[in-house]
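Quick question, first post here. What does this chain look like in 3D?
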Amino acid sequence: MMRTQTLINGALVSLLVAAAASLPSARAVAASAAATGWFVKRTQALYDAVAVGDKTIWRQTLSDDCIITDEDGEVYDKAAFLDTLTGLPKGFSGVIRIRRLTARIFGAAASVHYWIDEHEDVLGQKLHTTYVETDTYRRAGDSWGMIAAQVTVVPADLAPITVDKSGWPELAGSYRLGAPPGLLYHAYLRHGSLYWGSREKSAKRLIPLSPLVFFVQGSIHTMVFVRDPAGHVTEAIELHKYNEIAMRRAGSAG
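> Answer (accepted):
Ran it through. Tokens below.
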């Protein structure tokens, strides 16, 4: 009985080893030059089709079970995404270039990572946006089918707007986060510019969008200073990843 069980166990081990050997390797390897070239050409063609609303190459490339998450956090299946490809409105034009694409192969799957450099003309106004995207492909015969994609906007500083700076000395000072003692943050006025941070040395420049609204340089955050009905600065609000962090005025202007 024991010998029989030993033989059965040995046979099971052999079957498991053979099955594992037949599975595609999960270890990532860099795609060959030919495969990388295919992904570069196909990805560029996909984005060339966006401006004109050509759904053909997208329909050929997307697997029926694919899922796509766009830069606004919207999630689409294949049919829903194809419905979004309507081309640019009249008076709009644009060019998209794929940059620095790399591909890694995981057996029958591939991970493709790249930057999207978009230049757009919106009724005479020039826009430039950079995105970063990762796509996942599954081998489909001699080609590849996209099964997932996710894209996000690469942060960039906004351009300053010419505003009235006469009230900026009143914004300088300390602001408290939380009940006392809490955490103190400060608005510093230096050489005609405002800076924001917990320490003067590491404070980031505030890029003006209006006399009381600023973009925090090198971040994705916006600062809004609030005046009460009497005109006194009472609060600073940081717009932080679609949340509002309020800080009460804690010290006089300096």
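Residues 16 and 22 are 10 Å apart (CA to CA).
The radius of gyration is 27 Å.
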